């Protein structure tokens, strides 16, 4: 039996001793009463009775253990021309001072703090300062519009919001402040205080009695110590798309998160303290939380915070420049980033300009990794390219090739095998395991390992209904796939209406809600259509109210603008068409799956329950007009 199998089996057969061993590598203010509280299934808690501080484990511990002068964070920003390194000591001091500033403004353990910021070092300082105080941060991705921010404000009810004057995209500066002001106006929850970082690229006006400039907030603030919290207390809330426009607040607790993430840095990513690790994502996503901020710092790595893109900042050699300049050992990004590079530099010419001798492994996740991209990256970089599968809910891999345990042979299209702690099954509709090779619902047997979400913020019933009700005793991932005869897992598609756009998770239901609100739209459907760069993009089909006098083009322009304004540019909603009617089953269900197949030129069977087969021909024609289908 290989090392992976041995460790995996132990994690499943005796999870308590497995995770207790991992927990020994972590600093606790008080030890746990029990490793796992399984007294109230299907709800489980790790390390009840223990006290811990996440920020202490990320920073102070390393300073005390002699890593004070080692680089903790490298901020590399091609969009502003800034490059700055923070040692563990410097980062700890900045975080302690900012925590002091937050405390002076009344932020205490358990209070929520919303963070709406671009990729600047202050966002990391803000997150860790909240963790230092035991306050619960909720970071909102900058590409979301005011309305989405408002929804999150109303759910999290923050005591304070931390934001910045602007973000910088490749070709434009994005003013954050008007979005923040609008969100606060839209929200029902009263936001009394904001700390605003003024960036020199664009400064903004502050609102008297509400906004405090970052430097003013920290002026004279005293360094604040780490506040011990219960291992089961929340560290953060991260909102992710659900099947409606209402996002779900995924809760992360403190204890299990430190234990699991630190464990993954060595066992999955094969990094040792001191190694440079780079996750090219955004702090607004779970990848950013787990692997720009927390995981690498728990493990004493140097983490890279990159404010740029794979292409255009300034060229498709941007990633190789960062890897070579900072001696990155392990990199993590989404396949879409590599598709963007490949599109502009298919020969990989830019790679040859850089010394990548420190680079050992590339990890990809966030969407299904297409074999072309995997092969291209392997060939051009000459390092193992590892696909791994995970979700906002789990915070770390459900399946991975655990490079720190044993490198298993790569099978294209598969994120390899279940990670230790993840008892993955494929079930049929009646909840029975299917035979190998057969597609079904991918589920994980409870209890989920440490670091995964214990609940949804203020929505325990929704947590149960969404994830635990359908397959009793299992967590429903909402992905479908199969396990082959060698135990390799293949993740094929979502079973709900979530689509994956450039590695970002979006709800088509949420986009439909926006379209349906247009006064001329009687009915609509949104589906995720294949896109060679972004994986999928949303395409809208609109049925207009009869008697509408305005032109189709005008209405399409308006709905595109509405989605941009209400969800945000990140939705990448740019394609819609008007149709006479939508194909439905006799019971009235819109046949989105069939329409998607038409758009993607895939073969499809005429659904037996369709009420009027002729509609599909009309749909194919309309999709053809905007460049889809055609077979
Ligand atoms: N603030 C404001 N707007 C933002 C933003 C932010 N933080 N991030 C993205 N946007 C905007 C973009 O400017 C773009 O606007 P546009 O429609 O005016 O062009 C829109 O949101 C879509 O952004 P994005 O999905 O990033 O697409 P892109 O076309 O700008 O770039 C890639 C495509 C592939 C280069 C880019 O998505 C990428 O690097 N992705 C891989 C890494 C990653 O982030 N993965 C996430 C999970 S691991
Ligand atoms: P998010 O919560 O934004 O990280 O998105 C999680 C979803 O992205 C998963 O449920 C999958 O649908 C998809 N996903 C993430 N990683 C992979 C992967 N390696 N292979 C296939 N799909 C993936």
Question: In words, what does this structure look like?
Answer:
The protein is 32% helix and 24% strand. The chain contains 18 helices and 31 strands. The mean pLDDT is 96. The strands form 10 sheets. It has a 7-stranded mixed beta sheet, with helices on both faces. Strand 9 and strand 10 form a beta hairpin. The chain folds into 2 domains: 472 residues, ANL, N-terminal domain (Rossmann fold), CATH 3.40.50.12780; 124 residues, ANL, C-terminal domain (GMP Synthetase, Chain A, domain 3). It has 631 residues and is α/β, with parallel strands linked by helices. The N and C termini lie far apart (49 Å). Helix 1 packs across helix 2, helix 3 packs parallel to helix 10 and helix 4 crosses helix 5. The structure holds coenzyme A and adenosine monophosphate. Coenzyme A (COA) binds next to helix 12. Adenosine monophosphate binds next to strand 25 and strand 26.
Summary, kept brief:
With 631 residues, the protein is an alpha/beta fold.
């Amino acid at each position: 039996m290989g090392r992976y199998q041995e460790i995996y089996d132990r994690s499943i057969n005796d999870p308590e001793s497995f995770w207790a061993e991992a927990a020994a590598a972590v600093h606790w203010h008080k030890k746990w009463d029990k490793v796992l509280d399984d007294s109230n299934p299907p709800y489980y808690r790790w390390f009840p009775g223990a006290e811990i501080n996440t920020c202490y484990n990320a920073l102070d511990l390393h300073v005390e253990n002699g890593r004070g002068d080692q680089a903790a964070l490298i901020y590399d920003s091609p969009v502003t021309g800034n490059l700055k390194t923070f040692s563990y000591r410097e980062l700890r001091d900045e975080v302690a001072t900012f925590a002091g500033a937050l405390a002076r403004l009344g932020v205490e353990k358990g209070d929520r703090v919303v963070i709406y910021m671009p990729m600047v070092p202050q966002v990391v300082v803000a997150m860790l300062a909240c963790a230092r105080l035991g306050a619960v941060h909720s970071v909102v991705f900058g590409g979301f519009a005011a309305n989405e921010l408002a929804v999150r404000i109303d759910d999290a009810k923050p005591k304070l919001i931390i934001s910045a004057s602007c973000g910088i995209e490749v070709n434009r500066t994005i003013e954050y402040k008007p979005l923040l002001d609008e969100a606060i106006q839209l929200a029902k929850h009263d936001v009394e205080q904001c700390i605003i970082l003024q960036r020199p690229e664009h400064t903004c006006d502050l609102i008297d009695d509400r906004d405090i400039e970052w430097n003013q907030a920290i002026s004279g603030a005293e360094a604040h110590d780490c506040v011990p919290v219960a291992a089961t207390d929340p560290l953060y809330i991260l909102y992710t798309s659900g099947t409606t426009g209402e996002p779900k607040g995924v809760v992360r607790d403190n204890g299990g998160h430190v234990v699991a993430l630190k464990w993954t840095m060595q066992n999955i990513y094969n990094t040792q303290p001191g190694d440079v690790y780079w996750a090219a994502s955004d702090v607004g996503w779970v990848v950013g939380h787990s692997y720009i901020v927390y995981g690498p710092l728990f493990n004493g790595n140097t983490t890279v915070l990159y404010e740029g893109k794979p292409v255009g900042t300034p060229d498709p050699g941007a990633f190789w420049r960062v890897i070579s300049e900072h001696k990155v050992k392990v990199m993590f990004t989404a396949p879409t980033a590599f598709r963007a590079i490949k599109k502009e530099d298919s020969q990989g010419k830019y790679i040859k300009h850089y010394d990548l001798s420190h680079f050992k492994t590339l990890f990809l996740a966030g969407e299904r990794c297409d074999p072309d991209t995997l092969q291209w990256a392997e060939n051009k970089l000459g390092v193992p390219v590892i696909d791994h599968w995970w979700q906002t809910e789990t915070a770390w891999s459900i399946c991975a090739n655990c490079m720190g345990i044993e490198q298993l042979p790569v099978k294209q299209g598969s994120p390899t095998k279940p990670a230790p702690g993840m008892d993955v099954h494929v079930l049929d509709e009646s909840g029975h395991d299917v035979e190998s090779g057969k597609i079904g619902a991918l589920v994980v047997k409870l209890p989920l390992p440490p670091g995964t979400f214990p609940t949804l913020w203020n929505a325990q019933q929704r947590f149960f209904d969404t994830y635990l009700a359908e397959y009793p005793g299992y967590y429903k991932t909402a992905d479908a796939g199969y396990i082959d005869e060698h135990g390799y897992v293949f993740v094929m598609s979502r079973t709900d209406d979530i689509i994956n756009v450039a590695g970002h998770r979006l709800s088509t239901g949420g986009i439909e809600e926006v379209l349906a609100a247009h006064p001329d739209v009687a009915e609509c459907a949104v589906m995720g259509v294949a896109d060679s760069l972004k994986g999928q993009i949303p395409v809208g089909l609109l049925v207009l109210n009869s008697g509408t006098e305005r032109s189709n083009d005008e209405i399409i322009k308006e709905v595109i603008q509405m989605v941009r304004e209400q969800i945000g540019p990140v939705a990448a909603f740019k394609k819609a068409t008007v149709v006479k009617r939508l194909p439905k089953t006799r019971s009235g269900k819109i046949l989105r799956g069939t329409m998607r197949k038409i758009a993607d030129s895939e073969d499809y069977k005429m659904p037996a329950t369709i009420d009027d087969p002729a509609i599909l021909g009309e749909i194919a024609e309309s999709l053809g007009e905007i460049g889809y289908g055609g077979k």
